[in-house]
Amino acid sequence: MKSGNVRALAKLLTAVENSQQGIENILEKLSPNLSIPVVGITGPPGAGKSSLVSNLAGFWANTLNLKVAILAVDPSSPFNLGALLGDRLRMSELYTNKNVFIRSFASRGALGGLTHKIVEATDLIRNAGFDRIIIETVGVGQSEIEIAGLADTTVLVLVPEAGDEVQAIKSGIMEIADIFVVNKADREGAAKFHVYLQNALNHRKATEWNPPIIETIATQNSGIKNLSDAIEKHIKSHKSNEKMAALLAERAWKLIAEKRMSNLSRKELESKINQLILKGEFNLYSLVKAYQ
Predict the structure, then answer these.
(1) Is residue 124 within a helix (H) or strand (E), and if so which, with residue range?
(2) Tell me, what DSSP letter sits at residue 290?
(3) pTM, 2 dp
(4) What value does the CA radius of gyration of the chain take, rounded to a whole number of Å?
């Protein structure tokens, strides 16, 4: 993987996603290069995130000659928890590009627009020699603020008719986006929505970085260079992501909890509780204390 073997990277990502035995030993040996920028692309369904990601990755790979990895979080199949790959079909032109690596991850019920294994997957890719990493979230609105803890730059993609959606998500993701994109800017009402969005941003708490609003038409590859320039400017102006520690603390908490509970069987616990109930000796708090 470290030498650039994408097949090895793909196998390790599968091992991470499925929690295969031995993957922890590999993850412990990683020294992730935190200087590799991670760009999060988020926004409501139908905003054109996949088309935008495809064109942005293509611009970086073909025009700037950068190696780009795309982690796309998809909704899960209700039958096998695998990723539903419909959106990836719109990235088909990138599959033969030697500078682009694409991997879909199933959300598997994870909130926050990501997947439970996104931190581990990102760490693997940071060891695989890429220049840029793009993470496209599943697109579930306000709960997607988790992406801000992982990405160095968070891009919120909206469309001209998204006025009501902005009202709905203003208290969440509107607060953490670094760049705003008005996609499908050829639609009626785009200029009016741009003004509406700017007015909404004027009520944000003042910071050193003023989020720009970029107009794009992803299907026509319009505005992609402007978006790339805005991302590069933000990357250069922000050397650290203060939100990352909170995300990593949450992930560490979950991993420690999983490890401590690995020998605890829910079925055995249910059987134990049933026996105690039949004996008239059940006390929830005494039972919990016995397992501590």
Answers:
(1) helix 118-125
(2) H
(3) 0.81
(4) 22
What average pLDDT does the segment 223-252 reach?
83
**Closest by Cα among 126, 120, 147, 123 to 135:** 147
C-beta atoms surrounding 157 within 10 Å: 30
Q: Encode pLDDT of 110-140 as tens digits.
A: 444 456 788 889 989 999 999 999 999 876 4
Task: Please tell me the predicted confidence (pLDDT) of residue 260.
Answer: 81
**Integer Cα distance of 173 and 146 in angstroms:** 9
Tokens of 169: 């998500």
Burial status of residue 266 (CB atoms within 10 A of its CB: 0-12, 13-18, 19 or more): exposed
Q: pLDDT value at position 75?
A: 57
Beta carbons within 8 Å of 211's beta carbon, 6+ residues apart: 177, 178, 179, 180, 201, 204
Task: Please state, in angstroms and rounded to a whole number, the distance separating the CA atoms of residues 78 and 83.
Answer: 10
The secondary structure element, H or E, covering residue 215 is strand 213-215
> In this structure, which amino acid lies at residue 28?
E
What per-residue confidence (pLDDT) applies to 120?
87
CA neighbor of 105 nearest in space, from 15, 34, 8, 4: 15
- Distance between CA atoms of residues 175 and 212, nearest Å: 13
Mean pLDDT across the chain: 82
